[in-house]
Every structure is written in structure tokens, then in C-alpha cells.
Design a protein that fits this description.
By secondary structure, the chain is α/β, with parallel strands linked by helices. It has a single domain, classed as Transcription Regulator spoIIAA, CATH 3.30.750.180. Helix content is about 15%, strand content about 25%. It has helices at about 50-60, 75, 140-155, 190-200, and strands at about 1-5, 35, 65, 80-85, 90-95, 95-100, 105-110, 110-115, 160-165, 205-210, 215-220, 220-225, 230-235, 245. The strands form two sheets. Strands 4-5-6-3-2-1-13 form a seven-stranded mixed beta sheet. The relative contact order is 0.16. The structure holds fe (ii) ion. Fe (ii) ion binds near residues 7, 39 and 210.
Length: about 250
Amino acid sequence: MIYITGDIHREQDIHKINPREFEAGNYLTPDDYVIICGDFGCIWDGGSGDRFWLNWLESLPWNTLFIDGNHENFDVLSTYPIVDYKGGKARQIRSNIFHLMRGEVYDIDGHTFFTFGGAYSHDIMYRTEHVNWWKDELPTKAEVNNALCNLEKHHWKVDYVLSHDVYTCHPLAKKYEVSLSPYGPDYVDIHSFLDTINRKLEYKVWFCGHYHGDYIHYDQKKPCITLFNHVVLLEELDTYLPLLEHIK
Ligand SMILES: [Fe+2]
């Protein structure tokens, strides 16, 4: 089984996957997955805080997979080893915790996923680079090229997309005023890159996080589900649709 949710921000919102609250978690096994659509937050201080939360997550019976959001410590994240994982490259954090990297395609439990983390922070004026803000929250040209190359190999067809931010024509993309200027010439506007993906890629459902709410938006009949409070079971997705706010 595959469960998917949005941002957990370490201790702030991790309760939603604590089996005391996440009832299904009491019955999951090492064959099951919980996927977080960015703002994992458990790789943040590179020390005892991270160890505490990673130890706890590792003690749970399922596999925890996450894409990166804009609130990760990218300096620490980059120190974890890259391994081959389910047809793509992933960073192995613990025995059952993996970072699904930007531009990779994975085959998880018979479903194919294209993953592309990262997002604009809309509060960088209050943040300090390499302390609580990293330019690497946006993709580089190399990561974009890796994505295009991998999608070419998969003939631009997957089952699901996992991202943190959204594509340009999604209504949430306009929620905050953002600019590429603080990032520099190596970085790419994530909204417009995801827009390219949305227009060209054949997929069934797009999942994202970042906007701290539970929404569904249809772009030319293709659903984009934004998750925050809900932890949805992929195999029974239809039962969750009435719980999501429809945005146009
Ligand atoms: Fe967040």
C-alpha cells in the first residue's frame, strides 16, 4: 500500500503520520510506503534533532519516502549517499527512509512516479542563507536536464507526479509573489518548468504539498491534489476526493 501526504515540517506536523493519529499506520508492514510531498524537515540541524526524528521514523514498520520542499537543509541532505532505488536514483537516509530526488522516475509497488521537489520560499527576507534558507530550494539547470532525459527514457508517460510546488497555470502558483532574482543564473523557475512537464507528460494524478491545505484542481481534466492534513491511500484515492476543496 502507498499512502501520500503533504508537508510534515519535523515536529510541527509529523503527528499526522504518528500511528496514534494515523490509524492505518498500526497495520502497515515493510512492504508499504508513506510518501511526503516535501517539507520533510527531519534533515535540518545535521545533529541530535535529526537523529531523534530519523530514529523514530526508522522504527516504524513502513518505508518513509520524501521529496524535498523548500524547508530542508540542503547542505546536510547533500551529504547522504546516492543509491539505486526502484529504477531511479535516491538518497538513502536510513534503512527504510529515502529521499526521492528531482527528475527521477521510480517504480514503487507497480506504479510509476515522476518526482520533482523544490519550491519558492515566500519569506526569504526573514531567512539567512545556509542557516534556514538555501538557493537549492529551486532546481538547477542540471536537475532540469536530468528530468528531461529521464522522462525521454520513459516516453513521457508515468502514473503519478510528486512535486512540492505547482505549475504556472495552477491557481496556487499566484498565491505568493516570487522572483528568480535572489537565486542566480544557474537556477530555474520551478513553476514554469513544472508547467512544461504538465503540458507534455502523460499522467493520471499529480500530487503536491507546499500550500498547507487540501485542495483539488483540474487542469484539462488532469487532477492536481494538494495535500496537508490528509494522508491518502493511493489505491483508494476516490474516497478522499470529497474531502478536498475544489479550486479553479
Ligand atoms: Fe511547508
